[in-house]
Amino acid sequence: xxxxxxxxxxxxxxxxxxxxxxxxxxxxxxxxxxxxxxxxxxxxxxxxxxxxxxxxxxxxxxxxxxxxxxxxxxxxxxxxxxxxxxxxxxxxxxxxxxxxxxxxxxxxxxxxxxxxxxxxxxxxxxxxxxxxxxxxxxxxxxxxxx
Length: 146
What we know:
Blueprint: H1 2-11, E1 15-21, E2 26-27, H2 65-73, H3 98-110, E3 117-123, H4 129-145
Parallel strand pairs: 1-3
Antiparallel strand pairs: 2-3
């Protein structure tokens, strides 16, 4: 994840839309500055540590949620990707694992950079490719209009 963030800082893409697997498909809107079970992939445990020392406890996704919502609304009852504004049963995933680590790093690194919009979606086995494609297309158009 750290190498990925450094590479994205160097490349400066307009949109970074990362994904991980979970039971619900949703935009993860509130990454937390905490690490729980698991490790960093190199054998080092990280439970009980912050993602960024001294960083805020909670950040908001850097992706414009209104643009994501607008892209998803057109799917109506077939929409499977949740957001807090469109779904009463939306619950942010506060697990402190690698997905949260990546999401927090994206929000922390690109949250004040108007040239890059970055965020994280959990997806499941339900077909959501068309919905994520619509979101990505809307995000790119939003960035081009800036």
